Amino acid sequence: MKTTNPPSPESGHLPRHDEGQGQSRRTFLDRLGLAALLAAIGGQATMMLRALVPNVLYEPPRRFKIGAPDQFPEGVTFLEGERLFIFREQQVFHAISAVCTHLGCTVKMIQLNPPQHVEIRGETREEKQEFHCPCHGSKYRGEGTPYAGPAPVPLAWYLLELAADDGQIVVNLTEPVNQDFRLTV
Amino acid sequence: MPAAAKAIWKKLVWTWKPESEFEAGDSIVKNLLLHWFPSKVTLESVSFRYSLWLGTASAVLFAILTLTGIVLMFLYVPSIERAYASVKDIEYAVAFGWFLRGLHRIGAHLMVFVVFVHMIRVFLTGGYKNGVAAGQNRPLNWIIGVVLLLCTLLLSFTGYLLPWDQLAFWAITVGTNIALAAPLVGEQTRFLLLGGNEIAQGALIRFYVLHCFVLPTAVLMLFAWHMWRIRKDGGLACVDKVALQQKKEKTQPVKSKTYSLLGIAGTRTVHVETALVDEDRYATNSSPFLTQRLLVAILATTVLAALFAIGIEAPLEEAANPAVTSNPAKAPWYFLWLQELVADTTLRFGDFTLNGALVGGIILPGILAGLLLMWPYLDGSPVTATGVWFGPGRLRQNLVFLFVILLIVILTIVGTFMRGPYWVLYWPWEAWELLPRHF
User: Fold this and answer.
1) Hey, where are the domains in chain A?
2) Residue B360 DSSP one-character state
3) Which of B228, B340, B426, B433 has the most crowded CB, counting CB atoms within 10 A?
4) Nearest CA in chain A to B205
């Protein structure tokens, strides 16, 4: 095995790492050390970033009871905390989200007095209310279809069920439904 | 005073009236606070009419914001239960709390304005163009500057969330939903920003740490780089203009030379072209001319900010209420052009809809930022347009740039003064429709 050339002051240049066989081992060890350093930094950075992605969320449940059907008056009830409109027509219920589909502000309900006849998807319907968004001026019909402003899609409709134990209405925010959905009690 | 203490004292102070060139140079080079300045400075560089002193003003504002921010950090509690009450305490119970919060707030508004106008100044003077000296990389410094502008905007955004009032809550709602509109990574980005799906404690503490540590540190490091690049580039761009002018006046042949360094292997050469300007006619000692100019700029900025802080009351809306969106819900003035954009840019092609959040919130600002970053490389104007207001050969790009700025200003004015409840257009003198607070 060749020995490493010592740096000679006369030649005026530093020894190069690829000179001789002994140098290839040194180069390998250099690279190994560098790789270990990078792996250590990379691994620790990954752990730090991963720690910022929560494993447990203490958030309100996405499926919850809102009360017995007969607690709801005829017409529309706004549930502030849940940001939901609950519609009741005698024994028939449905729920529309109050979250604007444009950028997530809470829409406000406008009572139409007298009710208006509007055409929605080729069908003339009588509308008693509509929804307006304060943030960027989106406007929705009473069943959630946007007709003005920047909102791209209709307000979400959510699945309603009756709880098996006490007969309360259960809203399921993880289950969007289409606009034909009705819960009949 | 003992000799050692005297030596340390001398590192922190400098002479107001240097009595020789030597003393003038020494007071810059040997001083801890001033050593990052050149010992000679061109008259043009220190003049108000070239730079409008906007860079200095933004650095001073950053210092004011850091100092007031540190005091506020002792008084503010970053928890959703207590944040609003602690800001109210700062406003009404803490001695001079109203002034500190007002100064911090108005300083932030001024900094957004000053940094933005600084960018306009650099563009219109061709300040990002390389001139005649070797080793210049002004386009890089322009890019650092654009990143600093973005950091300034992010600092304001994260800052106005902290009071946890209605403005804070709905700004974070709109802001993070814009992130949600990004294709592919939108959902993960929002989740990471909020530390969950809901705007709650996780979101507040994240924005707090970003506002108080991450972003200011980034600004500080980028600022140091920005200053270092100015020295490396041979000063402000107007120095190159002076050098060119001087070259034209002199009858001597070209001063540029190429030396090859014999003895060094390879083909390395050193290109030497002096941008040194005739010091007697165009330059002066940094001490006292630059130092005095700095002190004047610091004084003016501080006094102006303090007067604004006394005159303009910092508003605090009602405590955050996720159930009720304020009507209208407006971002601060410097983001209202973006709010106008996201409100106006939902595109419909038959059944296919492109959300304004994506078009106006991500695509258009993205294009603007991309163009800004690339512009020095697209600008083909002659070297004589370096460091000159409205330089030759730049008429068209200056007009386009000013047109875009004008659009932003118009959108800001419309958003600020002409949007009422439900984002309906009103004339500034028109009264808004009165609405019940709850439906």
Assistant:
1) 14-58, 63-184
2) I
3) B340
4) A52
Phi-psi region of A83 (alpha: psi -120 to 50; beta: other; left: phi over 0): left
Geometric angle at alpha carbon B324, from B312 and A175, rounded to 5°: 140
Chain B residues whose beta carbon lies within 8 Å of the beta carbon of residue A85 = none
Residue A52: partners with Cβ closer than 8 Å, 6 or more residues away: B192, B195
User: Is B173–A150 a contact, with Cβ atoms under 8 angstroms apart?
Assistant: no
Q: Across B137-260, where does the E strand assignment appear?
A: 257-260
Is the ipTM higher than 0.90? The answer is no
Q: What is the pLDDT of residues A79-136, one digit of tens each?
A: 988 899 999 998 999 999 999 998 888 898 888 888 888 877 777 878 888 999 888 8
Nearest to B164 by CA among B335, B333, B318: B318
Contact residues on chain A for B345, CB-CB shorter than 8 A: 150
Interface list for B 351-380 with A (CB within 8 A): 353-357, 361
Fold classified for A63-184: Rieske Iron-sulfur Protein (2.102.10)
CB of B426 within 8 Å of a chain A CB? The answer is no
Closest by CA position to B155, among listed B104, B96, B101, B81: B104
Token pair 């005026």 is at which residue? A12
Residues B170, B162: Cα–Cα separation, whole Å: 12
Identify the structural domains of chain B with CATH numbers, from first to last.
27-275+286-423 (1.20.810.10)
Please name the member of A105, A150, A153 whose beta carbon is closest to the beta carbon of B170: A105
Residues 120 through 179 of chain A touching chain B, CB cutoff 8 Å: 132-137, 139, 149-153
| List of residues 6+ apart from B386 with CB closer than 8 A | B126, B127, B129, B130, B131, B237, B240, B241, B244
List phi, psi (to 5°) of B319.
-60, 150
Size of interface A-B (CB pairs under 8 A): 102
Are the beta carbons of B177 and A104 separated by less than 8 Å?
Answer: yes
pTM: 0.87
CA A101 to chain CA centroid, nearest Å? 12
**CA–CA min distance A159, chain B (Å):** 20
Per residue in B325-377, pLDDT tens?
887 878 888 888 988 888 888 888 877 888 888 888 899 999 999 999 999 99
* CB contact (8 A) between residue A111 and residue B424: no
